[in-house]
Amino acid sequence: MPRPSPLLQRTLVFVSLVTAGVVALLWLQSSRAKPQQRPPKERGRAARVLELAAIDAVPRTIGYGVVEAKREWQSIAEVSGEIVEIGEGVELGRVVQEGALLFRIEPRSYELEESRTEATVRAVRAQIDELKAREQSARASLKVEERVLELARADLERTRILYEGGNAPRLDLDDAERTVLTAEKAVQAIRSTLLELPASRKVLGAQLEQMQVGVKGAQLSLAKTEVVAPFTMRIREFNIDLHQAVSSGAVVLIGDGIDAVEIPAQVPVGTIGPLLSRRRAAATSGAAGRRARSRAPRVPSRRTAATRATRRAAPRPSPTPLSRPPAPRPRATRRRQRPQAQLRARRAASRPASASRTRGSRRPGRAASSGSSASIRRRGPSA
Questions:
Q1: Does residue 203 contact residue 217 with C-beta atoms inside 8 Å?
Q2: Phi-psi group of 89: left, alpha or beta (phi > 0 → left; psi -120 to 50 → alpha; rest → beta)
Q3: Neighbours of 9 (CB within 10 A)
Q4: Residue 133's beta-bridge partner residues?
Q5: Residue 318: predicted pLDDT
Q6: CB 95 within 8 A of CB 229
Q7: Could you say which residues of the chain have pLDDT below 70?
Q8: Residue 245 phi, psi (nearest 5)
Q9: How many other C-beta atoms lie within 10 A of the C-beta of residue 1?
Q10: CA 245 to CA 247: how far, in whole Å?
Q11: Cα–Cα distances in Å, from 160 out to 171, 218, 241?
């Protein structure tokens, strides 16, 4: 009887062992007892209970700040000069009533300026009155000169008639013509004067307006030499003394109003919530909820996750000989050449040993490079 081969013996032993293992597993599952189930028990812990009763409470918070006056006034000297008077009770820290005199600056220089501008105004007005008188006088003189001119022309006509009749010499005719010309010249001069007087009056009128503005400016500067309190205040800063010279724009004193004060208090942020109204608190909580919902991350579904996994697992098609990628970089070119090197390595492995040896002996460098590229390509999917 022929003896069975070792491969068949190993197969029979393996099948018998697997069958015995399956039979033993089925027997153990059928013969084991069911586990005992315990009824669920509620686990609890002892706790103290405190009943709270609703009470009416006034929400309040505590903040700290610096008391500041609602109104603050700085007295700035608008004119320069010497301090000649300081109001009674005007001292640092004292309260000054509204309308009380604070200080007075030397007013004599501004009074002199006012007197000078007023004198200039009176002089310009006198010139205007003089022009008016000259105009009236010129009009009266014009009437007289026109009458003289008429008489001279009549005398000239009589002299010409006598000269033509031979009863008067040529000298009388020349004298009559000269008299007419002199009268015409006087009339023309008076008329020119009457034409120039309105323009001169306009110039003096403009000068009068300018001088009147100067008078008002001098009066305004004179009024600024006396400073009074605009409202009841407490003097916080006082920078002048009697007979001290101050310049225009200098800060003389600073006062704070006592009718109202402000306290910019700083309170903790957590204590502001109870002070808000219910509607505002509800609106604030609703807005916070909407912001929380908008910030919540989106949970992908199973279908989306499976689709993404399928897309990631799907192999990319290998480039065909007809496809020409636009201007590939050298590194990308090497990656596309790896499938061709792997295909060559597989073909070399499928050939007989003699052919592979011959090919390896002829071109050992290329076979080594193909094998290395194939090994790198196989490691890629496992990674």
A1: no
A2: left
A3: 11
A4: none
A5: 45
A6: no
A7: 1-4, 277-343, 349-383
A8: -85, 135
A9: 3
A10: 7
A11: 11, 69, 94
Query: What's the confidence (pLDDT) of residue 371?
Result: 38
Choose among 317, 319, 329, 368: nearest CA to 345.
368
Rounded CA-CA distance 100/98 in Å is 6
Q: What are the E-state strand segments in 28-120? A: 68-69, 72-76, 81-86, 95-96, 101-105
> Which tokens in the block code for residue 41?
């028990």
Is 103 within 8 Å of 245 (Cβ atoms)? no
Query: What is the β-pairing status of strands 81-86 and 95-96?
Result: unpaired
Note the pLDDT of residue 23.
Answer: 86
**Main-chain dihedrals φ then ψ at residue 358, nearest 5 degrees:** -60, -45
- Nearest-CA neighbor of 74 among 267, 219, 236? 236
Q: pLDDT tens digit string along 186-223? A: 889 988 888 888 888 889 889 889 888 989 998 999 99
Q: Where are the beta strands (DSSP E) in the chain?
A: 68-69, 72-76, 81-86, 95-96, 101-105, 226-228, 233-238, 245-246, 251-257, 261-262
